[in-house]
Design goal:
Blueprint: E1 6-17, E2 20-31, E3 35-39, H1 46-53, E4 61-66, H2 71-74, E5 78-81, H3 95-100, H4 104-107, H5 115-127, H6 143-156, E6 161-165, H7 173-188, E7 192-196, H8 203-206, E8 209-214, E9 216-222, H9 223-226, H10 229-236
Parallel strand pairs: 3-7, 3-8, 5-6, 6-7
Antiparallel strand pairs: 1-2, 1-4, 8-9
Helix pairs in contact: 5-6
């Protein structure tokens, strides 16, 4: 790990809602080029951690850096796929328009997207199997299709690090396989991918790095080293057994 540069470095992070700590004194280093799951029970602070990294939530203490600098200076390097429940799916826009939003960061505020940006967006939609739906209103898409559109938007950003908040929630098995294959391709290309994930059974199959979180950080490291009954029990507070693919 000493030889690996860090995509994310978090020191002494504390976040509170109404004076109640949601994250407490978190120290976390995420190496560049890993596909990492954040796991923990409901209310553990998993989504809050991502939102704090992205500056959506202001911590009461601590520092966060992306590739050695504050997020505000590294915004263009970061892509974010939010939870489906946080998106207004009734907003009148097409799937292609949503994906093209992913190219805005490279344009700045003045320029309008042109043919180059449209080509990037269409290629991103093709990667997630959504090209035939490019002119469909997002409200008319299924849950799995909507998730693919938001993944395509993130791909269109051509970021260095991707944060995804439960990308597999409410999608069918075919979409889940398609999404994880894309995430593995991103890792293969040297990108860093951080995913809030609920299904413990698929952690060994999908991810190479894992962070256990329950208000405090319980453990973080390679799946093969730390995804075990001991850390699961510490995180979930019960005697946990999980089938780990050896």
């Amino acid at each position: 790990m000493e030889n690996q540069s860090l995509a994310v470095q978090i020191d002494d992070l504390t976040v509170a809602y109404n004076y109640k700590p949601v994250l407490w004194d978190i120290d976390l280093s995420v190496p560049e080029g890993v596909l990492m799951a954040i796991v923990g029970p409901n209310g553990a602070g998993k989504s809050t951690l991502i939102k704090a990294i992205l500056g959506i939530i202001k911590p009461i203490a601590g520092t966060i850096s992306i590739f050695g600098k504050p997020y505000a200076k590294q915004r263009k390097l970061v892509a974010y796929v939010p939870q489906k429940g946080s998106v207004d799916w009734d907003f009148p826009t097409t799937a292609l328009d949503v994906v093209m939003m992913g190219t805005y960061g490279s344009l700045g505020w003045i320029k309008r997207p042109g043919q180059k940006e449209k080509k990037i967006a269409l290629e991103s939609m093709e990667k997630v199997g959504m090209l035939p739906y490019k002119n469909r209103q997002i409200s008319q898409l299924s849950g799995g299709q909507q998730q693919r559109v938001f993944l395509a938007r993130a791909l269109a950003q051509d970021a260095s690090i991707y944060f995804m908040d439960e990308p597999f929630q409410g999608v069918d098995a075919t979409t889940e396989i398609a999404i994880i294959n894309i995430l593995k391709e991103l890792r293969k290309a040297g990108k860093t991918v951080v995913v809030v994930h609920h299904d413990l059974q698929t952690v060994p199959e999908y991810f190479d790095w894992v962070t256990f979180l329950n208000v405090k950080k319980i453990a973080t490291g390679p799946v093969k080293d730390i995804f075990n009954d001991d850390n699961l029990t510490k995180t979930y507070g019960i005697n946990y057994k999980v089938a780990v693919n050896k």
